[in-house]
Amino acid sequence: MWIQFFIATAAATLVVMLPGLGLLMLLGSDHIESCCLAPSVSVALIAVLCIAYGELGLFANWQTVLLPLCIISVLLLAISLIRVQRSTGMPKHDAGKRRESRVLLLYLMVAFAVSVWFFVRTLNGPSSFSQEHDNLHHLLIIKGFLETGDLSTLHVNAYATKVMMGEMTPTATGQSFYPSAWYDVAALVASLVRCDVAMAQNATILVFLALVAPLSSYVFLSWLFSENRVALLSGAVLSLAFSAFPWQLLIFGTLYPNFGGYCLILAASFAFVRMVESEKIQRKAAYALIFLLSGVALGFMHPNAVFSTAILLFPYCLFTVHKAAALHAGTKAESPAKRWIPTALFAALFVVVWVVLYKAPALQRVVTFNWPPFSSIRGQLLNVILLAFKTGHAQPLLSILVLMGLISCVHTKRFSWLSLSYSLSFVICFYNGIAANSLRNLLSGFWYNDQYRIAATMALVCLPLACLGSSLLWDVVQRIGRALAYLEENASWGMRGIASFLIMLSVCLYLPTLQLPDGRWYETAFGAIEDSLRKVNDMTSIMAPEEYEFMAEVAQTVEQGALIINQPHDGSVFGHIVYDLNLYYLLTSTPSVGYETFESRMVRTGLNKYATSFIVHDTVNSLDADYVLLLDLDGKRSDDRYWYGHYYENDWVGINAVTDDTPGFEVVLSRGDMRLYRVVRYNTAENTPTLHLNTEGERTHDT
To answer: 652, 630 in Cβ contact below 8 A?
Structure first.
């Protein structure tokens, strides 16, 4: 199984790297820059091609989507290499490029080690998965993509397979827009390797952690710190050091699409700043195309990644506009209005666009999504400054580096825009934790008012500041060394010293939970992350081992494709993911009023009256249901069982009331409080259900 997992990881690497690589090389990017930007371009090309296939009704899988893109990319690579050789002769060895390659390799080595230690090591097997409601939705979409061959972001439906098979569903289903680039990548991995969807998703997570995120960080930081080698090298250690991003997005709600999108933000930001700063029109056009494709990738991963990018880049744009206006205005003796009016107009334009999008009808369910405030003013101030956010696990060393970097960038003209990016993200994050009003919706509504997504945005903004702070700390260490006569005046400890410094920094930042001399335990941020990841990926968080065994037996007992009515909140929904059971309810929520079908309402509230109510009897027969599966007989909550927070017993009285003595159901399998019943078919002429009449003499039922 683990061998297949690492094969799937290699496949995920191929999916996110090769499709975009050829185009980038053809556009004139060097091999390092092309590798760093390839994931953004690849994701965009895959998402767009999947949409095209969906509209044309073509079946999408690795042969029809990935293979053509890879063949075209290889051809473009060959063309670009031939063009380079013809124009410059044989490529020369460049010492600068070799140094860049070594730094990039350092980023990848650190990211791989951290990812394997904190993510792979905490998996409960290569196919383990979080049993949260959101992840169930992720897995259902990936599975549906695989089975239907429709990977379009315009046709997303958790019940897609049932719709394709012409089966009835609990809710009125229709194709709808939902950002699906994350599911596209995972589905292509599963299609290529022929592994289960959970393994494909885990392999995709590992590749984004260990490859995509460090590549994106490196290309942005290498532009920002082209003249500050210590800051650039520190980025290798700091890229995955923030608890808020990427780790909390893998823990809370399993926000995998958000996580994937955020991994691409810095690469997209690099393409934008290079578009602005390039002098040659050809390079501007090339970077404009790359930025456009990167924006497509962000939008199809998750739209709020676009707003996070805006928070990072708006201050850069503002300072760039001001700089251009100042140059155009000429001497300082002239009217300052010429320098400040364009800046103010640009800021006003940004605010207007933000408000217009906030008022857009299509986004109202997002921007007004309600998460209650969770902290006092003083508490939230400390949470944000210490990078604890909502988790409460402070990162004091990292916060010191960020504050040192903030002080440094205020006094450095090139980095001064970063201080405004930090301020914007700080205000949004702070206010989100203490208020519940329309202003909060305006500031943080594009992230569902969710502290975890906003904190992840702030972590990305803080990354370059922490790199600056690390560089400043290194200078302080050297000054202390000179003061203590460990280092001669104007001398430096060199690369060996920097390496030792970064190793010590890594140890302090990624410190696990420690036992103090007095016997008490001190839980660090990464100690908490490791513990949380183990709990998230624990396959027994909802379903007990004996329930897995029971469902495996169910899979061997029932006929292939037989429809099984289930109680979704007892964990049975995962039988569809793990054992491919054809369950009636695939999602752990009560269908919304107005969207629920009549059949579902009859089953939920009156299944136990199957043998006594004509309407319920006809409803079950119309579904062609063969079995009923219950993993927790009577559907009662208990202290040792995890039931979803949105489970209400009264919503499921019909299913919960089915027992061994309920007429119309025959026990097939019985283990403890787990049951598989067969729906008894009978001739209504011989065994007529009891009908209930209303005052007008029409038949009705008491459900």
So the answer is: no
Query: CA distances (Å), 401 to each of 262, 396, 412, in order?
Result: 22, 9, 16
The helix or strand, by DSSP H or E, that contains position 668, with its residue range, turns out to be strand 665-671
Distance of CA 519 to the CA centre of its chain: 38
Q: Which amino acid is at 635?
A: G
**How far apart, in whole angstroms, are the C-alpha atoms of residue 414 and residue 231?**
14
703: CB partners within 8 A, 6+ apart: 602, 605, 606, 609, 613, 615, 616, 654
Report the Cα 535 to chain-centroid distance in Å: 18
Q: How far apart are CA 670 and CA 660, in angstroms?
A: 9
Q: pLDDT tens digits for 273-311? A: 999 999 999 999 999 999 999 999 999 999 999 999 999
Q: Are 245 and 305 in contact (CB under 8 A)?
A: no
Give 132-171 as a 3 state SS string.
CHHHHHHHHHHHHHHHHCCCCCCCECCCHHHHHHCCCCCE
The answer, yes or no, to whether the previous bond of 591 is cis (omega within 30 of 0) is no
Residues 6+ apart with CB under 8 A from 551: 543, 572, 575, 578, 579, 581, 629, 631
In sequence order, the β-bridge partners of residue 629 are 566, 676
Q: What are the start-end ranges of the H helices in 330-363?
A: 337-359
Q: Buried (b) or exposed (e) across 580-610, using 16+ Cβ within 10 A?
A: ebbbbbbbbbbbeeeebbebbbbbbbbbbbb
Residue 6, both tokens: 């690492």
What is the model's pLDDT at position 693? 37
SS3 697: coil
Mean pLDDT within 674-696: 64
User: Under a CB-based contact definition with an 8 Å cutoff, are residues 388 and 462 in contact?
Assistant: no
User: Which of 256, 251, 255, 209 lies closest to 541 in space, CA to CA?
Assistant: 251
The token pair that represents 238 in the structure block: 């700091």
Cα gap 473→363, rounded to integer Å: 44
Euclidean distance between CA atoms 419 and 369, whole angstroms: 29
Q: What is the pLDDT of residues 408-452, one digit of tens each?
A: 988 888 899 999 999 999 999 999 999 999 999 999 999 999 999
Retrieve residue 639's tokens. 């202290």
Kindly write down the DSSP assignment for every residue of 407-469, as one continuous string.
Answer: HHHHT-GGGHHHHHHHHHHHHHHHHHHH--SHHHHHHHGGGTT-HHHHHHHHHHHHHHHHHHH
Q: Distance (Å, rounded) from C-alpha 624 to C-alpha 562?
A: 9
Contact 563, 626 (CB under 8 A): yes
Q: Is the pLDDT of residue 646 over 90?
A: no
Q: Half-sphere exposure of residue 537, counting CA atoms within 13 Å on the CB side? A: 22
Q: What is the pLDDT of residues 123-160, one digit of tens each?
A: 999 999 998 888 999 999 999 999 999 999 999 998 98
